[in-house]
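[Solved] Which block belongs to which protein?

Original post:
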Amino acid sequence: MSNTHPPTPAGVLRVAEQYSGSDTGLQRRANEDSLLARSPLFVVADGMGGAQAGEVASRIAVESFGGGLEDGAAPEQSLAAHALAANARIYELAQSNPEHAGMGTTLTAVYVGEREVAIAHVGDSRAYCLRDGELERLTDDHSLVDELIRQGRLTPEEAEDHPQRSIITRALGPEAVVEVDTRSFRARAGDVYLLCSDGLTTMVSEARLAEILLAHARTSLRDAGEALIAEANGAGGKDNITVILLRLEEVGDVMGDGRQPATGALADRGAKPTVAQTVITRRPRRPEEAAQDPGRSPAGHASAGRSRARRLVGPLLALALLGVVAAGAWVAAQSVYFIGTNSRGLVTLYRGVPYELPAGIRLYSSDFVSGVSAASLTAPRRHTLLDHSLRSENDATALMRSLELGQLSEG
């Protein structure tokens, strides 16, 4: 894999759009995948083990990244540290609890920095970058067939139908010590990144992944993500399918004084200064044009300009006040959670409040998608769980955990 790309232009990068979804597939009874999609940090984990052990392992891996990366820490080292902490927790639980013996999980984690994307990886989940119409894989599978391919003992074509294709050689949990692959990838505005479990890549070829992303990703990541999941299910859906997509944009020096605007969720929803742009770009009336107008002299034009400026003060102040109120509402919304369902009927944990502003601006984002279909719950459970009550992060996370463990009490 090549890591020689032209430098990113001046300015910082941020996530402009994202999608996350997980599907049980057509041949599995439970979903052992877990995900975290909380910009600028994204994680996919694919659990393995008997009973519900795989679900436990993948959830522990994702929860290890729940607090984000440490301020000032190098992203690669911080991602690896969280992965190693998850490995220790999973291994300890597997050793102390016979029901969880042998459990483990893959992990692919991506952190979007100002100019680079940092990656930590263990197992056969994957990360890709779609750039300039080409899809590049950013991770190496830690699997038996890929090891044989790298050794020249197996061709990629032979690997597709190899009977031991599903055997992985590295995961979080089975061993006390694990090696975590890390790398940093020079990012660009317009890049689209795909994180996925092998439930997608074992069912859909990389060429087909590229076709679907090129057909949908430039217009809607949601459409692209749903199309990828549908394609995997259409090919048989033999495993759980988890997909995260994110698109990057550049934030330039739009403040005119060398300062960069805020990045992150609040900045993503910032109002565009359309009124100010209109005033700035209006072409001033030339003196000779004013002379052709018998009813207006240059002095009268200046006076009229001052009058228009005074009239603009009220709307500008109102817009500024509205922006402050909207920003405050958004910040407050990020401290609460609620539980609902996604477009496929899976119970989903949302961060924010269940409201949508004009122009389609949502005050919430998907935080975690469970493998539990709302249709599988009893009516009292659905009523208790899916009433959109605002909850703390700990309360909401505990409810999702108990739901997936089948321990949610009747309402």
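(Second protein starts here: sequence line, then its structure tokens.)
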Amino acid sequence: MANILITGCSSGIGLETAKLLKEKGYKVYATARKKEDVLMLQELDFIAYKLDITKEAEISEVLEKILKLDKTLDAVFNNAGFGQPGAVEDLSTEVLKEQFETNFFGTHEITIQTMRIFREQGYGKIIQHSSVLGIISLKFRGAYNASKYAIEGINDTLRQELLNTNIFISTINTGPVTSKFRENALKMFNKNINAKDSYFRNIYAKELKTRLENIKDDTPFNLPASSVARVVLKIMQSKTPKPRYYVTIATYLLGFAKRVLSTKQLDKLLNRI
């Protein structure tokens, strides 16, 4: 039975992926940052561990537990992450560092620790959850854009360094998907952005917060979280998974626009979204 470590399983994509893979016979090590979410996962009959990916020691501890149980690890799905909204000029350096600590540095730490396991056993799959915002950038998402662009750069490099090995890295570029992403992003906006003194205060009040507070799944091309779960399943079932997978029509359309439009044309298009 192949096994997989999944981060960020408290809800949404992580939880749906854990459920689907378990249903298909994979041994899932589901992790979450909060103790109450770990208990929830255990009640769903998962082998679940507390894992804050910004803490190197917790990553090492979880991997040690997995290897004690199974001796090997077949795959890791780096799913944990969050979005920090706000105009670039309203992002303090500390807030930007916080975004990178989870979305980039935490993901990188898990990647290099699992790479040691994969190198020793001679095989493994690294599944990195990026975004359409790792391909194109949208306004008021600068921190998140930058963190996902960083993931793209390091994935592209690692993929070259893994040529001619039995270790595969796959990047998933997800577009709008039903999850608690907007709900969590709103919390981070309220926590870290001084909206009332911002140049963009009127736009924040009329547009940005309205979008983040919208609980309906009415974003164009929106798909359920299970759409990403099915891609992870496909990767697990493949002997030689593809280096990149697009999820949602929006990702395909904007990825195509990035390739064919000039920078000025693309900026005009994206600014309307």
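Accepted answer:
You had them paired correctly. Confirming on the second one: Strands lie at 3-6, 27-32, 47-50, 75-78, 124-129, 167-174, 244-247.
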